[in-house]
TrEMBL record:
Residues 3-128 form the ApaG domain. GO terms for biological process: error-free translesion synthesis. It holds the Pfam family DUF525. This is ApaG protein. SUPFAM superfamilies: ApaG-like. It comes from Flagellimonas meridianipacifica.
Length: 128
């Protein structure tokens, strides 16, 4: 598990290899990841947007920005957490992701960024 704490917000990521499949006559490697965002601060926060840098050993880095996570902008109360799962397709059996969440402290309306730790993808057959 990969973990990072920024301004009292703990982000933990767990990854897994989902398998391979063909798309457009090419092999793709599917990876899943589960993110838990835990509010260890004293104020409720809301996740407004996300930024991802996706690294694939066979392609250039890809950047993805968007609102919320999987169609939601969760409010996380102090001492509570929000967990969601998503996935990533790579051209290579090895890669990584990192990024940040844009959040709002609902106690004082302050915008801030929460770092998402670098987490790695590796198909079991690609590592020794």
């Amino acid at each position: 598990m990969f973990t990072q704490i920024t301004k009292g917000i703990k982000v933990s990521v767990k990854t897994n290899f989902e398998g391979t499949f063909f798309k457009n006559y090419k092999v793709h490697y599917a990876f899943g990841y589960t993110v838990t965002i835990e509010n260890q601060s004293k104020h409720p926060v809301q996740l407004m947007a996300r930024h991802w840098d996706i690294f694939d050993t066979l392609k250039e880095m890809e950047t993805v920005d968007g609102e919320g996570v999987i169609g939601r902008k969760p409010v996380i109360q102090p001492g509570k957490s929000h967990t969601y799962s998503s996935g990533c397709l790579l051209a290579s059996p090895i890669g990584a992701m990192m990024g940040y969440y844009h959040m709002v402290n609902l106690g004082n309306s302050e915008d801030f960024e929460v770092e998402i730790p670098l987490f790695k993808f590796a198909a079991p057959f690609a590592i020794n």
